């Protein structure tokens, strides 16, 4: 008899944070995690997911997680992304945005044609191919859940289980392939003068404190500096919470249009408006934008830690051989497209390498995975503005729109 152990929102958040801390420790000590830019929430979260799998398989105990705070952390993160949406910078990245949309459309077409071809060769229901296609890859768990009923109605029994298991596989692979691909591109395709990795063992916030604290005057200066930094982080946190609240109203207004938007889209738009109004009024120096970004990145890490610990790895056990072949082929195709096509089209520079990590994230998983992949690469080398503006816009506005159009076209073709 199966037992269910339910964790409330605070316990779930605590477990996600614990996974994040574990991942940070692993990243400092396991060199290949550093080398391949595996995000700390992923490395730590996988450990907890395996423990959850063992509880389920050995003692028939299923852990059920409350995702309330996970959604809050996601909202805060994307609000911080909105604060980075400088229209001046975005206009400079306009051509890159258009090229990214072209790459995205190509990826979605390949993600549907490839599994349909494998289904035809192996004599499998083509709807299984659709379940393993862009519905669960570029679409992630949300689109997989949304289209499960459609696939069931077209005659695919167990469509929900197949699609969600495929989405789980994609989420994991999207998180572990993006960083290594970007790392290889940076190491082999770019000149290395300005791309030397930072030391993982050195905390920049702690650099030089020993000398500062050597005298009473130095300690007083350090205390004053800490107080000022606390006030800056407080202002940043207040600004984020205010915009999140305003963004919830914006999301409600967007829902009235009848068009489906991600839950974070309203907050992202409001934050972008606030940022650019402040830019026009020359108030950005007072907004503590760097601290807003820091708080947002903390929330992203906790969000992803919570998402990873709640993965149900046993959903992958039921995958039949044809579906496994399809999913492995999807990962290989994504890696080849990102490495050989996207990098070259997007400029063959550092921004393009960071975008490759993001493409693997949202092409196989979801936008937060893309952001985590890019954050891991930038943490090792240096920050890149353009990818962190373009990827959330594509993830919020274009992925679901383009994907839904192609899915509808392929389903109509199959049903004809």
Structure description:
This protein has 416 residues and is mainly alpha-helical. It is built from 17 helices and 2 strands. The chain has a two-stranded parallel ribbon with strand order 1-2. The protein is globular, with a radius of gyration of 22 Å. The N and C termini lie far apart (44 Å).
Q: How many beta-strand runs?
A: 2
Bin the strand percentage: under 5%
Q: Structural class, judged by helices and strands?
A: mainly alpha
Low-confidence stretches: 198-214
Strand order of the largest sheet: 1-2
N to C succession of SSEs = EHHHEHHHHHHHHHHHHHH
Helix content: over 70%
End-to-end C-alpha gap: 44 Å
- Identify the overall geometry: globular
**How many alpha or pi helices?**
17
Radius of gyration, whole Å: 22 Å
Residue-averaged pLDDT: 84
Mind describing the biggest β-sheet?
2 strands, parallel
Tag the structure with descriptive keywords:
mainly alpha, 416 residues, 17 helices
Short overview:
The chain is mainly α and 416 residues long.
What is the strand and helix layout of this fold?
Layout: E1 3-7, H1 9-29, H2 31-35, H3 40-59, E2 61-65, H4 68-83, H5 87-92, H6 94-122, H7 126-131, H8 140-153, H9 159-189, H10 209-212, H11 216-255, H12 265-280, H13 289-309, H14 321-345, H15 350-364, H16 367-380, H17 385-415
Parallel strand pairs: 1-2
